[in-house]
Specification:
The complex is a heterodimer of chains A (about 1100) and B (about 325).
Chain A lengths: L2 E5 L6 E5 L7 H11 L3 H13 L3 H11 L2 H6 L4 H24 L9 H16 L4 H14 L2 H14 L4 H17 L2 H21 L5 H13 L3 H14 L4 H13 L3 H17 L4 H14 L2 H14 L3 H17 L3 H14 L8 H12 L3 H14 L4 H13 L3 H14 L4 H11 L4 H17 L6 H14 L2 H12 L3 H6 L8 E2 L11 H8 L8 H16 L3 H14 L4 H13 L3 H14 L4 H13 L3 H14 L5 H16 L6 H21 L4 H13 L3 H15 L8 H13 L3 H16 L4 H13 L3 H14 L4 H20 L5 H24 L9 H57 L4 H64 L4 H30 L4 H22 L1 H34 L7 H18 L1
Antiparallel strand pairs in A: 1-2
Helix pairs in contact in A: 2-3, 2-5, 3-5, 5-6, 5-7, 6-7, 7-8, 7-9, 8-9, 9-10, 10-11, 11-12, 12-13, 13-14, 14-15, 15-16, 15-17, 16-17, 17-18, 17-19, 18-19, 19-20, 20-21, 21-22, 21-23, 22-23, 23-24, 24-25, 25-26, 25-29, 26-29, 29-30, 30-31, 31-32, 31-33, 32-33, 33-34, 33-35, 34-35, 35-36, ...
Chain B lengths: L2 E7 L7 E7 L8 E6 L4 E5 L4 E2 L11 E6 L5 E6 L3 E6 L5 E5 L9 E3 L5 E5 L5 E6 L5 E6 L17 E6 L5 E6 L4 E5 L4 E6 L6 E6 L6 E6 L3 E6 L4 E7 L5 E6 L5 E6 L4 E5 L4 E6 L6 E6 L10 E7 L4 E6 L1
Antiparallel strand pairs in B: 1-28, 2-3, 3-4, 4-5, 6-7, 7-8, 8-9, 10-11, 11-12, 12-13, 14-15, 15-16, 16-17, 18-19, 19-20, 20-21, 22-23, 23-24, 24-25, 26-27, 27-28
The chains are: A mainly alpha (about 1100), B mainly beta (about 325).
Keywords (chain A): Repeat, TPR repeat
GO biological process, one term (chain A): regulation of DNA-templated transcription
Protein name (chain A): Protein CTR9 homolog isoform X1
């Protein structure tokens, strides 16, 4: 064991101090040293020994004592040892300062240890300013403080003096290397080369120097990319010092970087060896941790990295350690801890270029924790370094989509897909994003993803197939959609259902009504040992397939699918709702409500279920309940669900039109409220067609036809695009507008198209609108045919029969009213009237067991009137037939007369010259007089007929203004109602009937008047009917209230004017006959004519 | 089994054709197709060329909604919207009688297999009227009772009887109504037996299987065709596939298939062994109001024939094999 011998003062003896047995208390030694005035180098030796043993306090104590002023004084001429002591202290404090700095505790400039170190070095310099070891110490201090330029200067001073000073050379190499580490890319190489140069010089100067020199050379070469020579250097180090950890680690890293299994194994062996030699090398620890991360030994990872963190000072090294730790937690799904460590790792890094991985990890964790903004900035850091990193791009795209910035998201995914056209994930996400905005592009992207995955030989995810299926479905490409869904579902019980192998087994027909709630079929199957597996991820596809089957009208199989879903997942609300919708479509309202009840049991706030319940209740005429349900639905979604809002809007609209609560004020309030709700939906969703339609209706209600027409047209165009949006209402509404504006032909076209396009011509309500339009356009036969079709479709709707009766009656009346009619026409009129009578009398008798809502008296009146008309028509018929015959006779007569005239003229011509001129003159006079008389009568006619014309115009206008407006309102109401409220249609039809009824008044009176004029002998009877009509008139007035009675008054005014013009037309017709008086007509006819003329005179007076 | 289009006649009537029935062959002529239309006429057509046999026969006010032929082939009856049934001699077109029982409307009608009784669906009278075919007297009124579990009925469409069908043995009679219920009667005792439930919309047509008197097919507006065991009250199967109302159903004489006509403008052929639609004919352009298989019999006529008539005024004839 080494010992130090302290010479005893003034003697030849020495005190032996065994270096491994230094006393614990340094004071003992100091006392000896001081007492014996031992040479200073002994002080140093002892202090250094203490340091080596880790007893820094004693080391410090001795050196501080050794540099005290007394010593300075006493050993004033022993320069070198004094400097050495000071430098040792300086180096020691530098070391302390370095530790502080690495631990990040103190700013280097305020580090007390550095200050102390400087003080000692300065003292040393004062003793000898040229001592190279002082400068070297100062240089090292500067390196420690990161002041490389000053360090460079310090080392340079030494090297200028002695170019082969090894420590200075090493220092300079170190300075350059560090500068290289910190410099920008392009200067790095130069600095490493400089560093390498200095290491080489050091090695030349001192070939047997410590392995550290070769290590430096190795690092420089490594940095310069000369890996083989770096490897040689490290291997040389290991030859010299087989336990050199740095060299081992360096070699291990290089092995690992070969990225080959063998290389990695070699590398890990070296790492392990290094770890065994020295368990505190952070690099080795990190790499080992990394390795164990991949082998899944997380416990080791944590231990290793924690050690690494404890021993490491290098920020990047620490960043790696934190990263390893974070990654370990990340893989254990402890996202919070992982996030913290990623963050710690990121905090160690000044530039993302140095070490980008923790940013990626951090981004992932932040994404997981739904901190999208932070995640976005993390991934953007990654993209700064690797702008084409697909994973990060996809992450960024995903975040954008989560943040609702769809355009950016799509753009990002497009970029990712462009960079790597083989990345199925990017196409998948791109496709999913595009689904809502651009279905065909979405389909393309998803198909690409599908093909890529298929090519890769992987299993195609069910979601992808599901989405592709849905897109085909929406495109209307049902066959491909079905194929896709089948592929998504694979093998399973559903195939047996599709093949029809499992069918609804025989059930008692009384139980059939609840079939959609019946799951016993599946229970039975399970009991029979058939496994009914339905993995959760296939449920959506199965549901969509069922939707497709519904679209293909295979509702039986669809219902089985839905029920299978419910059997396995009784909480799947959508399946309940679809079953309910199917039940509703089959008019099984009770079952539908029960199914919705099931859905509400699962979630009593489900807005869809509530909305549907509301519409069912409305169907059931349960207004208050319906409103409550809609309200609940609206509340459940914080008013964000447009459907509920719309439904409430519709509710208000219907409420406004309820006939039993016709309060003007209430109606206006409801309308206003409806408009408000529609507008609200429109502001939230600009493209909501239903809201637009609603707004259009409200506007139409208010008479703003042009605006509403524009709206309807736009909605109609918009709705044409999708197979899922079916908006027949808007067609009907448009037709209503045309109707209200008097464009009957257009309205007819529109109604017909709507019927054909949406209802397979089965909707009687629209047929009723159609017949109504024909009625308005006075196309009686079309009107009648349309009504007959409607009756055929809805046999139990007696209102339609009534309307058909009215149409026939109206047709007959108008034919009879015509001034010219053929016998055929009259004959068909008679048949029509007979039918009308039959229809009305059947209605009247049917009321015995049906309350179809007609006043029996009213029907009775119709029957009577038609019968009367029939009687009248018979006469007309005879008259017409007679007239026809007479016409023939007349023609014959005329021919004979003209022949006779001819003969007479010839005879007269012969006599002409012989007859007296006076006689001729007399005759002439007579003719002139007659002509004058005729002229006067003609004048009379003219005035009366112009009178008639203006009145007629009046009437039309009035009807447009009042009647037209009011009618419109009913129509508009009807169109919406059809959608939600079929039963209410009855009220509507009654109104319709009522309306037709009051229209009927006019022919009634007219014809009655006709009768008076034409048939003297019938006068009495006609008077009766006139009275009957009048009686009914007053009835109607009671029903209709104020505004309509005004219309009636107008009407009556018109019929009065008719009375005036009716007879005035008669003479027109009869006048030619009047001129042919001479040619001889039947007396009867003459009498009729004269009677008519007499009437004219009376009326005029 | 399949259908093959043989011939179509466009504008066979002036208006929508609503009714079709085969008049069985007699010794002097083959089976004829009888059609009725909104144009207030019935017309007779000779297969397979679908040539008009006689000028249109008038006297059906407001349009013909149903037609039926007597099993002997001598007589036929047509119901029209004015609620009367005109019975006429097929070959001479002479009216035999006109039946009406006001205030009852008339809808579907059917002669019993022996030809002694004519059953007429009575519409709003909630009954089926039975007429004796020798005296043309009303012999019975089979009233449809309300089912036990009565549904609320505010629309007045409650027991509006639309359609009738005789079982092949003539012992049972079934009728379909507006609200979807199907009532089964024991004819001999003139007694109501039970309801067959499952439909909630109008049942416009129904037919018994010609080979199994228990099996009844119903066509309903709910787009489904149901197959019932009429005796056991049970639903054997439901067939879906039509996109709109099923207006008419008829069973093939061999009992292996049924054909349906729908307002979705198609005629479908269903294989009863699998209860799936095996064929869909899309030649019509509007509602198909009636489909009818030609009854077997007649001299040298073996081939199966199916006729369909439509709102598009056309008649189509198919070969069924």
């Amino acid at each position: 064991m080494a010992s130090v011998y302290i010479p005893v003062q003034n003697s030849e003896e020495e005190v032996r101090v065994a270096l491994d047995q230094l006393p614990r208390d340094a004071t003992d030694i100091l006392d000896i040293l001081k007492a014996e005035q031992a040479p200073l180098h002994l002080w140093l030796i002892i202090a250094r020994e203490y340091f080596k043993q880790g007893k820094t306090e004693q080391f410090q104590q001795i050196l501080e004592e050794g540099s005290s002023p007394e010593i300075d004084e006493y050993y004033a001429d022993v320069k070198y040892e004094r400097i050495a002591i000071l430098n040792a202290l300086g180096a020691y404090y530098t070391y302390l300062g370095k530790i502080d700095t690495y631990l990040g505790k103190i700013d280097p400039n305020q580090n007390k240890n550095f200050t102390s170190a400087i003080q000692y070095y300065n003292r040393a310099s004062r003793i000898d300013p040229l001592e190279p070891s002082t400068w070297i110490g100062k240089g090292q201090l500067c390196v420690a403080k990161g002041e490389y330029q000053q360090a460079f200067n310090a080392f340079k001073i030494v090297l200028d003096d002695d170019p082969n000073n090894v420590p200075a050379l090493l220092g300079q190499a170190c300075v350059h290397f560090n500068k290289g580490e910190n410099e920008d890319q392009y200067k790095k190489a130069q600095e490493y080369k400089n560093s390498l140069e200095f290491y080489k010089r050091a090695l030349r100067a001192y070939p047997n120097g410590p392995p550290a020199v070769r290590l430096g050379i190795g690092f420089c070469r490594y940095r310069l990319g000369q890996y083989d020579r770096a490897r040689q250097a490290f291997q040389r180090v290991l030859q010299l010092d087989p336990e050199n950890v740095e060299a081992l680690v360096a070699l291990a890293v290089m092995d690992l970087q070969t990225n080959e299994a063998a290389g990695i194994r070699r590398g890990m062996e070296k790492m392990q060896k290094a770890f065994e030699i020295y368990p505190y090398c952070p690099m080795a620890l990190n790499h080992l941790a990394n390795h164990f991360f991949f082998t899944g030994q997380h416990f080791l990872v944590e231990q290793l990295t924690e050690t690494a963190l404890a021993v490491s000072n290098n920020p990047i090294m620490k960043a790696h350690s934190y990263y390893n730790l974070a990654r370990s937690y990340h893989s254990k799904r402890d996202f919070e801890k992982a996030g913290r460590y990623y963050m710690a790792s990121v905090n160690e890094i000044s530039k993302p270029q140095d070490f980008v991985l923790p940013y990626y990890g951090l981004g992932q964790v932040q994404l997981k924790l739904r901190d999208f903004r932070s995640a976005l900035s993390s991934f953007e850091k990654v993209l700064e370094v690797h702008p084409e990193n697909c994973e990060s791009l996809k992450a960024v795209g995903h975040i954008y989509s989560q943040l609702g910035q769809m355009d950016k998201a799509i753009e990002t995914f497009r970029k990712a897909a462009r960079i790597d056209p083989k990345d199925s994930q990017a196409f998948l996400e791109l496709g999913e994003l595009l689904i809502s905005s651009d279905a065909s592009a979405a389909l393309d992207a998803l198909k690409t993803a599908y093909n890529l995955i298929k090519k890769g030989g992987e299993d195609v995810p069910i979601e992808l197939l599901n989405n592709i299926g849905v897109l085909y479905f929406e495109k209307g490409d049902f066959e491909v959609a079905e194929q896709t869904f089948k592929e998504a579902l694979g093998e399973g019980i559903w195939l047996s259902i599709l093949n029809g192998k499992i069918d609804t087994s025989k059930v008692d027909s009384t139980l059939y009504s609840v079939q959609y709630r019946d799951l016993s079929l599946f229970q039975q199957l399970e009991e029979d040992g058939i496994t009914l597996e339905l993995p959760w991820d296939k449920v959506t596809s199965l549901f969509n397939y069922a939707r497709l089957l519904e679209q293909l009208h295979d509702s039986e199989k669809a219902s089985l699918f839905y029920r299978l879903i419910l059997f396995k997942y009784p909480d799947y609300i959508d399946a309940y709702l679809r079953l309910a919708a199917m039940a509703k479509a089959q008019n099984n309202i009770q079952l539908s409500i029960e199914l919705i009840g099931d859905a509400l049991k699962v979630d009593d706030k489900c807005p869809n279920a509530l909305s549907m319940l509301g519409s069912l209740e409305l169907n059931d005429d349960d207004w208050l309940k319906a409103k409550e349900s809609f309200r609940a639905a609206k509340d459940a979604t914080d008013g964000k669900d447009s459907y509920a809002t719309l439904a409430l809007g519709n509710w208000n609209y219907f409420a406004a039109l309820r006939p039993d609560k016709k309060g003007q004020k209430l109606e206006a309030t409801h309308l206003e409220k409806a408009k408000e709700l529609y507008t609200k939906v429109l502001t939230e969703h600009h493209g909501n067609m239903y809201a637009a339609n609603g707004a259009g209706i409200v506007l139409a209600e208010k008479g703003q036809f042009d605006v509403s027409k524009d709206i309807f047209t736009q909605v109609q165009e918009a709705a044409a695009g999708s197979i899922f949006v079916q908006m027949p209402d808007v067609w009907v509404n448009l037709a209503h507008i045309y109707f209200a504006q008097g464009h009957f032909a257009l309205a007819v076209k529109m109604y017909q198209n709507c019927l054909r396009k949406f209802y397979y011509n089965t909707d009687t309500q629209i047929l009723l609108y159609l017949s109504r339009t024909h009625y308005e356009a006075e196309q009686w036969q079309d009107c009648k045919k349309t009504l007959l079709r409607a009756i055929h479709l809805a046999p139990s709707n007696y209102t339609l029969r009534f309307d058909a009766g009215v149409a026939m009656q109206k047709f007959s009346a108008s034919t009879l009213q015509k001034t010219k009619r053929t016998a055929d026409e009259v004959r068909s009129t008679v048949t029509e009237l007979k039918n009308a009578v039959r229809v009305f009398s059947q209605l009247s008798s049917a009321s015995a067991y049906h309350s179809h809502g007609f006043d029996e008296k009213k029907i009775e009146t119709h029957v009577e009137y038609c019968k009367h008309l029939l009687d009248a028509a018979k006469v007309h018929c005879e008259a017409a037939e007679r007239e026809e015959q007479q016409n023939r006779q007349r023609l014959e007569l005329a021919r004979q007369v003209s022949l006779a005239e001819e003969a007479r003229r010839k005879a007269e011509e012969q006599r002409k010259f012989q007859l007296e001129r006076r006689k001729q003159e007399d005759e002439l006079k007579q003719v002139m007089q007659q002509e004058e008389h005729f002229e006067r009568i003609k004048e009379q006619w003219k005035t009366s007929s112009t009178n008639f014309g203006s009145k007629r115009k009046d009437r039309l206008r009035n009807e447009d203004e009042e009647g037209g407006g009011e009618r419109k309102r009913r129509r508009g109401g009807g169109s919406r109602r059809r959608k939600k409220d079929k039963t209410r249609a009855r009220y509507e039809e009654e109104e319709e009937a009522d309306y037709m009824e009051d229209e009927r008044e006019e022919p009634d009176e007219e014809d009655a008047n006709n009768m008076v004029n034409d048939q003297d002998e019938e006068a009495e009877k006609a008077q009766d009917h006139l009275a009957a009509a009048g009686l009914e008139d007053s009835d109607v007035e009671d029903d209709m209230g104020e505004p309509s009675s005004a219309i009636n008054r107008k009407r009556r005014a018109w019929s009065e004017s008719d009375e005036e013009d009716e007879p005035s037309q008669r003479p027109l017709e009869s006048s030619p006959a009047g001129y042919k008086e001479n040619s001889g007509e039947s007396d009867e006819e003459m009498r009729g004519k004269s009677g008519g003329n007499a009437d004219v005179e009376e009326d005029d007076e | 089994m399949k259908l093959a289009g043989l011939r179509s006649v466009e504008n066979a009537h002036d208006e929508s054709i609503w009714a079709a029935a085969w008049v069985p062959a007699t010794d002097s002529r083959p089976a004829l197709l009888l059609t009725g239309s909104l144009d207030e006429t019935v017309r007779l057509w000779r297969p397979d060329e679908l040539a008009a046999v006689a000028p249109p026969s008038r006297g059906h006010a407001l349009g013909v909604v149903a037609a039926a032929a007597h099993p002997s082939g001598a007589l036929a009856a047509a119901a029209s919207l004015d609620s009367s049934v005109r019975v006429f001699d097929v070959d001479s077109n002479a009216s035999v009688t006109s039946l009406d029982a006001p205030p009852s409307e008339v809808w579907g009608l059917q002669f019993d297999p022996k030809g002694t009784v004519l059953a007429v669906a009575g519409g709003g009278s909630a009954s089926v009227k039975l007429w004796d075919t020798s005296t043309w007297q009303l012999i019975a009124t089979l009233a449809v009772p309300r089912p036990d579990r009565a549904r609320p009925d505010r629309t007045g469409s409650g027991k509006f009887v639309l359609s009738v069908a005789w079982s092949p043995d003539g012992r049972r009679l079934a009728c379909g109504s507006m609200d979807g219920t199907v009532a089964v009667f024991d004819v001999a005792r003139a007694k109501f037996l039970h309801h067959l439930e499952g439909h909630h919309m109008p049942v416009r047509s129904l037919v018994f299987s010609p080979i199994d008197a228990r099996v009844l097919f119903t066509a309903c507006d709910d787009t489904h065709v149901h197959m019932y065991d009429a005796e056991g009250k049970s639903l054997v199967g439901a067939m879906s596939g039509h996109a709109s109302w099923v207006l008419s159903v008829d069973a093939s004489p061999d009992g292996a298939a049924i054909a349906t006509g729908s307002s979705d403008r198609t005629v479908r052929l269903w294989d009863l062994s699998t209860r799936t639609a095996v064929q869909t004919m899309t030649n019509h352009t509007d509602q198909v109001w009636a489909v009818a298989f030609r009854p077997p019999g007649g001299t040298g006529v073996r081939a199966g024939r199916l006729a369909s008539v439509s709102d598009d005024k056309s008649i189509s004839l198919y070969d069924y094999s």
